[in-house]
Each structure stands twice: as C-alpha cells, then as structure tokens.
C-alpha cells in the first residue's frame, strides 16, 4: 500500500482523484478514533479515494483497496434494508427522521415516544438493525451482511477483532439500548440486538466498496457493477434524503451547505457520498475532527464539490440548459407521401393547420412547460400539433404527465396532438397518437386534414381519372389507360425493383388503390425507418426506387398498381403521338417529393 499519490495517472478522472489527494497530503490534523481501542491501531497516513459511475466504472486513487470497518457508514444501508422489510411508515413509527444536532452517540430520545431522532445516529441505527427481518440474531445479521454485500457487489466479511473490541467497550451504546428498551422503542433482547449492531459496524469495506455502495443508492437501488436491484428506488430515495439531513452527525447542516451531496461518515475514517443519478464516492482517511468525521475525507469532498460544481442545490446555469424546443413556423414540413395535384394544392393552402414542434435533449419539467405554453398559445387555425420526440433522450415523469394533460386539453379545443417517437414511450401513448417517425406523423395529420375537406387520400383513383393525363379528353384517356398492365400486390408483398431488360422494363408505376412505401429490407417494416409512401393517384418512375438493396418498396395494404413497360410506351407513341406528351412530363410532376426543410 502506498501512502503517496502515484506520479502519473492513466486517465483524466484518475488524475483528478490523484490531484485531490495530492493537494491534501499535508493536511495532518485530527486523530484516529480511539474509544474503540482496535480502531486506534490504524496507520493514520492511509488515504484512499474512489468514485463509481452509474454504469459501473470504478476509478480510484491511493489506498483504495485497504480494508477498514464500515462503522456508521453501514447505517444508511441497514436503514435501506429495514425500509425494504417494513416500508417507510412502519420504520418511521420506530425511529425519527430529524437531524439531532447532537453527537453521534447522543443519549437524547424523543420525549413521550422514546424514539431515537434518526437512523444515522447510534441510537437510531441500533433500532433499524433490530428491524431487519430474521427470526434469530444470526438470521438478522446474515441478512444484513448479505445486504451490505449486495450493495458492494462482492461478499463482505467481519473484522472479528474490531467486533470484540466494540463489544467489550461499547457501554455507551449499551446504555442507549437499555434506555430505548425501557422506553419501548427497542424491543427484544437488548444484548442480542447490540451484538447485531456491533457486527454490522465491524463489516470490512474498501474505498472502492463504498463508491459502489453509494453509486447503488445514487442509481435508485440498482448496483451498477452487478446490475442487481438491491432495494426499491423509492427506498434508495428515502435513504439519500435522510443522509442529506442527518448523515454527517452534528455537522450535517454545514456539510449540506458546503458540499451539498448526501453523505455518511464513520468513526473509522470512511465517508461515503452519493450524488443522485450521477455517482458514488468512497473516501478513507482515519484522523477525525472533533465531531467524528474524517478530516481529509471532508476536505476531499469539499474540493470535489467545489471544483466540479456538484452541489445538489446549485441552479443549472442558463447556458447549460437543454436546447429550448423549436416550433417550426411557418410550417415548412410536409410528409414524403406522393400527393395528387389537388391534394398538394389543398395542403399548400392550409400549411398553417399542421404545426410541428421539435424537442431535443432530456424532456424535463422546464422543457415540458415551455412546450405546453407554446401549444396553448397556438392560433385557432391550427388543427394538428405534432411533437417530434426523435431527438429526445429521457422523459421525466413530470414531463410525461404535463404532456398527457396537454393532449387532453388540446382535444377540448379541437386540436389534435400527435407524437413522433421512435422509442414509442408507452407513458405518452394513452392520450396522444404516436408514430415511429416524423414522416408518418405528418402523413397521418395530412390524411386527416384532406379527409376532412372531402379529399380522402385513400379513395381509389382509377387510372383513367389520374392527374398524369392532364387535359386529355375521355377518349384519349381510355386509350392511354389501355397501354398499362395491372399488378396486384397483397399487403406485405414488395415490388420487384426496376429491371434492366430494356423492353420489359417498367417505366411507370401508377397506384390505383392501397399504399406503397419504402422501408428497410427487414422483417419489422413497422418500426424501420420509412421514407416516401404513395397512395391512390400517385405515379412512380424508376428514379423513385431506392438505389440501395437494403431498402425496398413494400405494399403496406392490398394495393393495385398499373404499370407501363418500355415496350408499351413505344407502342403507345406509335399509335397516339399526342398522348405521349402528357406522359413525358406528367410522371415527374406527380411523383415529386416535397422538401422537408431542415429536419429530414
Ligand atoms: N460502532 C460505532 C459506535 O457505535 C459507530 C460510530 C460511528 O461510526 O459513528 O460507536
């Protein structure tokens, strides 16, 4: 074990932890605890520092692997086990949740009930360890040791010498326990309860263990290294809350003020810190200040919190807020559905009716509230509010709730909320229609708009009536239509890619009924990204077919196509030279796709 920081680090985070230790190397105040004689034998120069991320990466510096007894650092975890066994209310009936403002071994109990002030001081911890499920003293301790091991992600053991030393000298704890027994807050055999508590304090851990244990709390009860759920997320939250207010003995207020992260210290010199949703830290340095906290441990946590702006109460600087939502107006977006001339004209004339709002980053309270405000201020003309969640990471529960409420409110205003969300987050689907991408969401809105004005885009359009033939009279139209073959596709069938054989080559596909779409050549055509689609009235040329083999044109419904081959086109030109003029310019126009602005 080295007492000096290593000269070089392998990565920036390790370098940072080394740097913290290096800066505190000359801080030699305090003395190791000696009221438990065995603890006084420790080498005061030991100094370790570890950090565990929520994906289970453990970084460490110095004496990170040296084992020491957990002492009071075990208390939050045993509190968690008691919560898991009895629930919050039942545990609170036996032990309070108020900072005592007194020393860890304070003898004051709540007047009347005899309840100890909180689970982080000795009296409270003796009660919580007595609450852990188990019929016998051994069964209870086994559950505690297994529980602590699950938090650490490896089997932990007990330092029997420290245990014996605590047992022999723990008269103050004994006095506390008897007082509580007398007051009714500690039931059962007092000596047996104390033995469980002393053993729990004598469990051996390292800085790395403390980092993983606290990362488990920070991550909502799931051990980031083993992936095991150790306690329910709400119990992890309860524990962190009590650590934040009571974890640092009678220095808890100062700690919250200056460091601002839930933490627990122990008289052996360990401190565990958990920053919710971020990481866990373990520090070990035996010399203590007068309140029983590790001197270098406190200083290290101050440095880390200060240097990296980790205080829980700090307001996120405005420039670090997620990008605000963007409302795209005037709406430049159109789906990639092939539209007939009449449909395009109708949509162009009503561009303001469909409004798209693009969200990015994590969807938290603030972003949801901004979205809400934007939606509620939409002009009356807007009939569809499309929320693009394609670039959204996490959706906080509060944001999901607000958006669900928004969908309901918009419905009462005759405004429909539609989501584009590749992750199909179930939380949102209950009140808003959801599509796997923006193209399909827009297409659904356009279809509804068109249907509402009598231009139902799914009504079959016979070839003889199509846009392609422009001003041609009925006789000419019939002659043109005759040159086409019929191709029926069942839903799910794909269209053969254009062949290269010159004369059999199809040069024009016309959709009479049903729907075609381009999607990835995978079994799951629903969720794979789709580009254009084509319904009745659409005409496609070989140029519309995807060049890549990984994508194909599929019939999304039973579809009837009319196709014109190169040979058919040649025959037609010979027979009806006038007619061909229509065909030569029409397909491009009819098959045109619309620019989707900057969010394709
Ligand atoms: N086992 C120690 C005691 O009860 C724990 C105290 C502490 O770490 O705060 O005295």
Walk me through what this model shows.
With 600 residues, the chain is of the alpha+beta class. The protein folds into 3 domains: 12-308, Beta-lactamase; 318-452, 2-Layer Sandwich (Transcription Regulator spoIIAA), CATH 3.30.750.24; 463-590, Jelly Rolls, CATH 2.60.120.10. Helices cover 38% and strands 16% of the residues. The protein contains 20 helices and 20 strands. It has helices at 12-23, 75-86, 88-92, 122-131, 137-152, 160-169, 171-183, 190-201, 207-218, 233-246, 252-258, 295-308, 341-349, 365-376, 397-412, 426-429, 438-452, 474-482, 566-575, 577-590; strands at 48-53, 58-62, 68-69, 204-205, 263-265, 270-275, 279-284, 326-328, 337-338, 354-363, 384-395, 416-420, 433-435, 485-489, 506-513, 516-520, 533-534, 539-540, 551-555, 559-565. The strands form 5 sheets. It has a 5-stranded antiparallel β-sheet with strand order 2-1-7-6-5. β12 (416-420), α16 and β13 form a beta-alpha-beta unit. α5 packs parallel to α8 (190-201), α6 (160-169) crosses α8 and α7 packs across α8 (190-201). Mean pLDDT is 86; it is low at 1-8 and 587-600. Bound molecules: glutamic acid. Residues 71-72, 104-105, 122, 166, 173, 201, 266-267, 292 line the site of glutamic acid. Glutamic acid (GLU) is lined by residues 71-72, 104-105, 122, 166, 173, 201, 266-267, 292.
């Amino acid at each position: 074990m080295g007492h000096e920081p290593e000269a070089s680090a392998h990565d920036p985070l390790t370098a940072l932890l080394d740097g913290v230790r290096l800066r505190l190397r000359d801080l030699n105040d305090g003395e190791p605890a000696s009221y438990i004689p065995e603890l006084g034998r420790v080498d005061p120069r030991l100094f370790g520092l570890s950090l565990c991320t929520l994906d289970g990466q453990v970084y460490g510096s110095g004496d990170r692997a040296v084992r020491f007894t957990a002492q009071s650092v075990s208390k939050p975890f045993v509190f968690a086990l008691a919560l898991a066994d009895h629930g919050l209310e039942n545990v609170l009936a036996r032990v309070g949740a108020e900072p005592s403002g007194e020393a860890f071994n304070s003898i004051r109990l709540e007047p009347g009930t005899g309840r100890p002030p909180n689970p982080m001081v000795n009296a409270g911890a003796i009660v919580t360890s007595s609450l852990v499920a188990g019929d016998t003293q051994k069964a209870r301790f086994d559950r505690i040791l297994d529980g602590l091991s699950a938090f650490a992600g490896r089997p932990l053991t007990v330092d029997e010498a420290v245990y014996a030393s605590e047992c022999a000298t723990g008269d103050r704890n004994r006095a506390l326990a008897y007082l509580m027994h007398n007051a009714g807050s500690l039931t059962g055999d007092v000596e047996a309860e104390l033995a469980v508590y002393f053993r729990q304090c004598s469990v051996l851990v390292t800085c790395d263990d403390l980092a993983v244990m606290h990362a488990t709390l920070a991550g909502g009860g799931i051990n980031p290294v083993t992936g095991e759920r150790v306690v329910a997320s709400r119990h992890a939250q309860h524990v962190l809350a009590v650590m934040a207010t009571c974890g640092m003995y009678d220095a808890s207020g100062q700690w919250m003020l200056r460091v601002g992260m839930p933490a627990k210290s122990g008289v052996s010199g360990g401190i565990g810190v958990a920053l919710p949703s971020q990481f866990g830290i373990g520090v070990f340095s035996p010399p203590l200040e007068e309140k029983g906290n590790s001197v270098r441990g406190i200083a290290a946590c101050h440095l880390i919190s200060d240097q990296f702006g980790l205080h829980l109460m700090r307001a996120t600087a405005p420039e670090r807020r997620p990008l605000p939502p963007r409302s795209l107006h005037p709406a430049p977006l159109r789906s990639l559905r092939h539209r007939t001339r009449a449909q395009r004209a109708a949509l162009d004339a009503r561009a303001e009716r469909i409004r798209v709002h693009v969200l990015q980053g994590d969807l938290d309270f603030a972003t949801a509230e901004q979205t809400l405000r934007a939606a509620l201020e939409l002009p009356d003309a807007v009939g569809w509010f499309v929320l693009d969640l394609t670039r959204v990471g996490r959706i906080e529960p509060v944001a999901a709730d607000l958006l669900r409420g928004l969908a309901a409110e918009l419905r009462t205003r005759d405004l429909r909320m539609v989501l584009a969300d590749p992750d199909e987050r179930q939380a949102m689907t209950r009140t808003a229609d959801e599509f796997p991408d923006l193209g399909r969401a827009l297409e659904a809105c356009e279809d509804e708009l068109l249907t509402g004005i009598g231009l139902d885009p799914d009504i079959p359009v016979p070839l003889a009536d199509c846009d392609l033939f422009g001003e041609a009279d009925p006789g000419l139209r019939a002659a043109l239509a005759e040159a086409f073959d019929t191709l029926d596709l069942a839903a799910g069938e794909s269209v053969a890619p254009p062949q290269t054989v010159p004369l059999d080559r199809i040069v024009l596909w016309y959709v009479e009924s049903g729907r075609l779409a381009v999607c990835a050549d995978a079994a799951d055509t629903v969720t794979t990204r789709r580009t254009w689609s084509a319904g009745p009235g659409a005409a496609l040329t070989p140029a519309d077919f995807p060049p890549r083999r990984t994508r194909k044109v599929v019939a999304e419904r039973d579809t009837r196509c009319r196709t014109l081959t190169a040979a058919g086109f040649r025959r037609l030109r010979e027979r009806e030279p006038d007619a061909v003029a229509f065909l030569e310019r029409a397909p491009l126009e009819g098959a045109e796709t619309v620019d989707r602005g900057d969010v394709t």
